[in-house]
Description:
The chain has an eight-stranded mixed beta sheet with strand order 3-4-2-1-5-6-7-8, sandwiched between helices. Helices cover about 45% and strands about 20% of the residues. The protein has helices spanning about 25-35, 70-90, 105-115, 140-155, 165-170, 185-190, 215-225, 240-250, 265-270, 290-295, 305-310, 325-340, 340-360, 360-375; strands at about 10-20, 40-45, 50-55, 60-65, 95-100, 120-125, 155-160, 175-180, 200-205, 230-235, 255-260, 275-280, 300-305, 320.
Amino acid sequence: MAVKHSLTRTHTLILLFPRQYQPLRPQFAGRLEQLCAACRGYIFTLSGERYRGLRIGDFLLYSEAIEPNSLGLVLRRFWLQAILPLKLIPKSTHIDAIISYDPYASGLAGALLKAFLGARLIVEVNGDYHKVDLPSNPLKKWLMRAAFFISIRSADAIKVLNRDQESFFRQRHPSKKLFRFPDFVATRYFQSLQSSQGDYLLSVGFPFSLKGMDVLIRAFILIADRHPRIKLKIMGYCPEEELIAYKRMASGHHRIEFVKPGWIEDVGELMRGCYALVNAARSEALGRIHLEAMACRKPVVATRTNGAMECVTDAETGLLCEIGNPQDLAEKLDYLLSHPAVAASMGRAGFERLQTEFSEERYTQSFRSMLQGLLFPNASDGAVTSHQ
Length: 388
């Protein structure tokens, strides 16, 4: 007779995150509160300040403050994620799984902890690292490739965000357990906001070059005269020297506004009042901002990145355009702005899709299924968690 295994609160995890400036905000704390129904554990991450045992749900957070010195930051992160857990966690504590947020520094720390603690290791791949160009510095490039190789080889399971990542790892690591589902997004917060169809397009993200803000500015200028009441708001961090170049590109256009980066509440305030979200990114593994817009019932106009194609149903919840093509983006924006009823309908359709495929509850279900497939292999075949 087969024994049915299930996750209980006795399962203990170590979570390794790169940096969380304010861990008590919904985007980070909400994930942990959701996971408390099935597990507990320890979090090791860089943060805005030093924490020693900050309780978030059934998890204890340990962090070091982020410093501007890059070398010091690397050393502090290695000590925090690879050494401190071995010193801190009682030897009598059984760790079921270690989850690293990336296959680089956190992945290396996870591989080391796995060797000492005998726990299973899940390496999350939260970027299209298989496509993004590595740094030109030979040493840094070699170090990143070595870290990626060691992390993935050490992993008992790999968690990805989109189909292209899935295909890449299926081909190169066919023996690895592989799971695909979106990262956690605080959708409850965004859908609680009172939204309206405003008079501006919104784009959020950094770095500006990767997010295609230059393409977006050119596209907006092409249609600005046709829609004299519509503005463009660009929110995100950009170094002052680069920002000057983007403002010059906007040619002093009085309806293009650059907004300083903010926390989730600041993004929510802009999101709830925009006409549509626009993401002209050159690369995007998923794009949390897509789901935040859907939670606010906003249509999404995005380039055909792996992430956008995972989230946006073309002509149903938004519109997709070619990467790096201002003319194509301008045509999609012109159409959406010319048909407000269609835009509103797409926003509603996006909200409905969010509820079934990308909600906080769906993330929790997928996460628990991943642990189930890893910890109880005889009860699960480790198949990709999909949203089809």
